[in-house]
Automatic annotation (TrEMBL):
Residues 344-431 form the Monodehydroascorbate reductase 3-like C-terminal domain. Keywords: FAD, Flavoprotein, NAD, NADP, Oxidoreductase, Redox-active center. Its EC number is 1.6.5.4. GO terms for molecular function: monodehydroascorbate reductase (NADH) activity. Its cofactor is FAD. The keyword tRNA-binding does not apply. This is monodehydroascorbate reductase (NADH). It comes from Chenopodium quinoa. Residues 6-322 form the FAD/NAD(P)-binding domain. Catalyzes the conversion of monodehydroascorbate to ascorbate, oxidizing NADH in the process. Signal peptide: none annotated. Belongs to the FAD-dependent oxidoreductase family. It catalyses: 2 monodehydro-L-ascorbate radical + NADH + H(+) = 2 L-ascorbate + NAD(+).
Amino acid sequence: MAEKHFKYIILGGGVAAGYAAREFSKHGLQPGELALISKEAVAPYERPALSKAYLFPEGTARLPGFHTCVGSGGERLLPEWYTEKGIELVLSTEIVKADLFSKSLTSAAGIIFKFDNLIIATGSTVIRLTDFGVKGADAKNIFYLREIDDADKLVEAIKAKKNGKAVVVGGGYIGLELSAALKINNLDVCMVYPEPWCMPRLFTADIAKFYEGYYTNKGIQIIKGTVAVGFGSNDNGEVKEVQLKDGRVLDADIVVVGVGGRPLTTLFKGQVQEEKGGIKTDAFFKTNVPDVYAVGDVATFPMKLYGDIRRVEHVDHARKSAEQAVKAIKASEEGKSIEEYDYLPYFYSRSFDLSWQFYGDNVGDAVVFGDNDPASSSHKFGSYWIKDGKVVGAFLESGTPEENKAIAKVARVQPVAESLDQLSKEGLGFASKI
């Protein structure tokens, strides 16, 4: 059985893996010290592009255009970059067994990869309706979006079902972004989700009201408070209808499902401490196993700003946690110390001509400011969240770079708020004073 040994292994091929590789190269690497192992066939790329420009009918994003680390304004790490840096890029390779205590990973082909230091950057996988035994959920043209292969299949279906009917199951990030992308492709789009409003993990009812109104004005049908319980298919095995719990039946040529993800931690069960669905780490992303680190979606880490521990599924945290882990590894080797991870939660999305950013914590009382009329031409509005008399979170739609920086500062500084009415009246003026 073939065996290879590396000083460092990054397990995973997503955003966090690419940023970790770049950080290692910044600190200096000897050829053959680092391997990046991914089950995907391509070098790490900026995953958010898949639900945005990749699906647009014109001027679409394609590789090699969005390899990491171009998403944060950095150098694009093409496959040749890894070769130049002496990094072994091990693609199309699934690891089926991990023994963290003997420091070995075994691939499906039986190759054993030994490591001195491991960064777990396995990310998340999508939750599938077939997991719940939903009738007909294995029909053709029911799509999930996680990897570039998924996006390619969806693009082909969009071309094949020109001007057809699309049903999007789910009202979160993926649901909102994909509904917009499908509409831009001139499909007849219907969104279905069980919650009382879209994006409930982040949006208040007031914020959601704007987006639901805006999407409706764009011709997207929204059905709330029910779920898909079955799918009908034609003689070719392609989906033709979506059966809803409330009894309605929707015609469909394409179905896209976005009902959440789950962190890929199965390989490490019983070997690492877990909490809140992820692998528990310290402020340097070290696990309880010596020389093993976990970053991105799979890590449950100390949120210094709020004095608790959390797991964050977002590209910004994937990038920053990866860099922090590598810095910690290199500092440990040199007998030095680095500062603890002090993360400010950040989320963003783009669809149609909309673009919002959120910073901080969405807890406590919320107040909306600005013009949140879905029919407005400016649609610039936002929200603050106030807890214990302090502003702890801020959201802004259609902000300028300066305005987005201002709301980020508010969330970090947590200034005292006199009253909800005052915040509502001041709006962005409040942020500009901080």
